[in-house]
Each structure stands twice: as structure tokens, then as C-alpha cells.
Amino acid sequence: MASTKLLYLSLLAQVATSQSQPPGVTAPLARTCGPTSADVVCIDRYASIMPYHFFRAPSEGSTDVSFAQTSVPNDTSFGLVAGADFLVFDQQRGLDVLGPSPTLDLVFNVSLAVHEAPVYVPSLNKLFLSQLSPPDGFLPQLVVDLNQDPPTLSEFLSDPPVYAPNGGTFHDGLIYWGVSGGNNSIGGTEQRSGVRTLDPHTNKSVTLLNNYFGFYFNTVDDLFVDSTGAVWFTDPQYSWFNRLTDTPPQLESASYRFDPATGAVTMIDDTLVQPNGIALSPDGKNVYISDTGSETGSIIAGGPPGSPFNQTGPRAVFKYDRVDNGTHITGKRPLFYAQDWVPDGLKVAANGYVVTATGPGVDVLDEFGVLIVRIQTSFIVQNFAWTGTNLTEMWLVGQGGIARVRWNLKGQDLTNPTS
């Protein structure tokens, strides 16, 4: 009798499994593919039809449930996704991005502080970056010496020191920092959020901008410099949420263009909840800005610190057209809805592909927002920078790790801007 019951339950389970397959489902959803120098997994048709019952649990608070953690019990091939270094969604273009021998290596274990503003200085072959956590006084920055094998990581301080760079780029021999922190006594001096430069050869820093008609900026977060020398930057409110400033926001979240030649600052967009990454296309025709408004907090003085994650909040990259002789943007349209966490660091490759740091990894999109490849890491990635003679190495920086990717996707040459 017991054996008959077990047989019945087994048959019932088989029927339930067969009924769970929707018409059109293909298997396997995932398979190993491409070069063997890394763990590369190709995703069939973007996993657009999954066999039932699949489930991706909702994210709560500060914990995100990634695409790789989706439960798909009726296709065991999906188990390959979590362990992959690279997920390829468009096989033809994706494998071209990876090249013949891609690698992903965790080079340094670092603290769980936010690590940001990676800037590569070709003449020194060094990568400069920041670490954002609120110790007493100002924050030292970090430098990766790529002349050493293996590379070395050390602290450094500019003269005068700079408090909490959160975004960075390279232009005309200088590091440009978006400075996010604001305090009336940092190393004995007052500093406010704005734009500063660092001469990496002399270690001297200079303030270019520190207010908007007397108001403190909130968090000059990320920036790029165009060929005219104008600095385009985003100004969300994260410094207050994370207590890197002593003053609640005085301005709405917005994005700006700053002309160092005249001192003029003009608003270019104020439609995003928390504008974050910002980047320029190689031809100069388009500007990309990410909105990480699903991570936001209280702007009230004395309110709770931090910016908890709301899964259904804004977490997208937007594309704009550059107009008015390259001084403003228009034509806002959504480009990419982040599959994991929020689109933080944002840059554009030499071929026009858009690259964004999203949670434990980095997504590569074409210029129309179609996902091509994802790099998967063991830590939250905040930002990244291309390095090396051919600009085909990418360094990823974030919470708990600094990693290096070697592949075939080339970065823009910031020593010779064309746009």
C-alpha cells in the first residue's frame, strides 16, 4: 500500500512538472560558452521564458536578491549563473567584448567602506581612488601602483587634503574630483562639496567650485569634463544621508554644467530623484545620467541616517541629447532598468557601449540600452576605470574588494578628448 502511494505521488509530481512548462520554453536557460580563461556562461534568449515555478525573492532593506539568485528548480542549468565571472546575454557581441582570453581577478581585499572615484593617470601608470567612511578628520585617498607586479595599494594625501572625493575623471593632465563631503573642520580647514583638481605630479589640489550662489552643494557625486573644459556633474543628497556633511540639503537633487573659465554654473536636469553617474558618448552627442533614487533617505535635520533600498524605486539609466551648442541636454528617455541593485558608476566605452556598476557586478549595454554582458563580482561595485596602454584593462572598486578585468572592451582615451 505504501509503495502504491509513493508511486502515485511520484506520478503526480511528474505531471505537475510537465504542466509547469509554458509553451515556448526552451532549455537549457544557461550553458558554459566562449573562452576557458574565465567562467563564462551564456544565457539563452535573456532567460525571457522560465519554466514554472520560478521565483526571485524581493529585496528588503540593504539586502538585494540578485538575478543569479532566482530560483528555477525545473531547469538545473540556471545553477551555472551564480558562479560565473561573465554572463553573456548577446552571444555574438558579448564574446567579442570578452575577447579571446578574458579574466576577472580579485586583487585587493579592502574594507566595507564605499570605494569610489577611480581615476587612471597614464603618465604615472597609477590608479587613484577614494574610500568613503566617516572617521575623525579628513579621509586619505588610495593609489594602486600598476608599475609593480603584482600591483600595490597604498594611502596618500594631497596638499591640501581633499575630503571625500566621490567621482573622478582625468583631463588635461589633472585629476578632477567631485568632492562629496562638507565640514567646517577637516584637517583644520573648512571644506564644502564641489569640484577640485589634483596635479598627480606635484600632489597639489585646487578648488574650482564650492557653492551655488551661496548654497552648499549636496553631494557632487560624479562628473566628466568635455573638450571645452566644462565640467558636467550630478548632485544627489547622499552625503547628508551618510553623514559626510554637517549640513542638511539646501538644494534639490539636480545635475549641472560648470564652466571653469567663467565660473558659471547652469542646471541641466532636475527630474531625477537621486542623479548619480554621468557620462558622455564618444561623439559628444549624448549624455547619460543614472537615477539611484531607490536608495534615498531623510533630509530632515536630526532624521535617521542612511539610505535604505526600495526595490520599486527609481534605479535606471537615462539618455539625453546634447543641444544649445553643447551646453544643455534634452530628449530624456529611459535606457536601462538595473537588473541588480542600482546603476552607480557610469561610463561609455570607446565604441559607444554604456557601462554601469550595478550591485555585485558591472553591466555592459549597447547605445540603445540592450544588455550584452554582465561581470559578476563577490563585492558591491561602486565605480570603475579603464587602465593600461591599450585601455583594455578595467579596475572595479567597491565595498570589500578591488578587482581587475582583462578583456576586449576599450575605454575612451581621456588624454585626448574629442567631444
The count of strands amounts to: 29
- Please name the CATH topology: Neuraminidase
Which parts are unreliable, with pLDDT below 50 for 5 consecutive residues or more?
A: 1-19
Helix content: under 10%
Q: What is the 3D shape?
A: globular
What is Rg? 23 Å
- The assigned CATH architecture is 6 Propeller
| Major sheet attributes | 7 strands, mixed
Number of helices: 4
- Secondary-structure content class: mainly beta
Protein name: SMP-30/Gluconolactonase/LRE-like region domain-containing protein
Pfam families: SGL
Keywords: Signal
Domain SMP-30/Gluconolactonase/LRE-like region: 194-293
Topology:
Elements: H1 2-19, E1 30-32, E2 40-43, H2 79-82, E3 86-88, H3 91-98, E4 103-109, E5 114-121, E6 126-132, E7 141-145, E8 152-156, E9 165-171, E10 174-179, E11 183-186, E12 189-191, E13 194-199, E14 204-209, E15 223-225, E16 231-235, H4 238-241, E17 254-259, E18 264-269, E19 275-280, E20 286-291, E21 316-323, E22 328-337, E23 343-348, E24 354-358, E25 361-365, E26 371-376, E27 380-387, E28 393-399, E29 401-406
Parallel strand pairs: 2-3
Antiparallel strand pairs: 1-2, 3-26, 4-29, 5-6, 6-7, 7-8, 9-10, 10-13, 11-12, 13-14, 15-16, 16-17, 17-18, 19-20, 20-21, 21-22, 23-24, 24-25, 25-26, 27-28, 28-29
Signal peptide: 1-20
Pfam family, one: SGL
Organism: Friedmanniomyces simplex
